Amino acid sequence: MVLQVEDSVSVSNSLKKHKKSRKCSSSEEEIAKNFQCFCDVIIEGSLLMSSHDRKHLAFDVLLLSLPRLPASFVPIVLSYKLVQCLMDVLSTKDSWLYKVAQNFLKELVAWVGDDDARRVAVIIGLQKNSSGKFDSITRIKTVKDLMAGFKTESGCMLFIQNLTNLFVDEGNASEEPSDQSQTTDDNSEIGSIEDKDLVG
After folding, report:
1. Are 70 and 29 a contacting pair, CB within 8 Å?
2. Are 121 and 74 in contact (CB under 8 A)?
3. Distance, CA of 104 to CA of 40 (rounded, Å)
């Protein structure tokens, strides 16, 4: 009888722990969704599409939220629209927002610090959304300096893995036919139709 009570208590405790861990992961997902929605609607949909003052506010809001964000949120912060806005502003030195954008990048690099996950996420975010031309368009060595900051083998391997994931989609590569085989199929079908027309 005592063993049964102990067993039921231990099962109950393990179920509570499981529910807590499930709540924790679902709450992290919920936070990510909410932050994504905030950035989509407020930052990109409203502030970045408006006046210089509002763009300034967008950069300030993102800088205020940055210290509290994990590295996994960097793709949300460094969205295509934000990176394009940064490049537009930084490509013209006499732009009203030039110093604001410079400060944003300076704070972003300071936030990266020695954290390899953050470093990789920021490099990938800047390069992916600028077609690999962030430094050349802005004439600032942000990406180059971030790349030079890798000090560990694990950091370099993390960067290489992220680059591989960016350029190689292994799941689709094996399942989908290549463009060449599709073209061959289309051409062979056209050829067979033409042959029928010639015979007929």
Report:
1. no
2. yes
3. 19
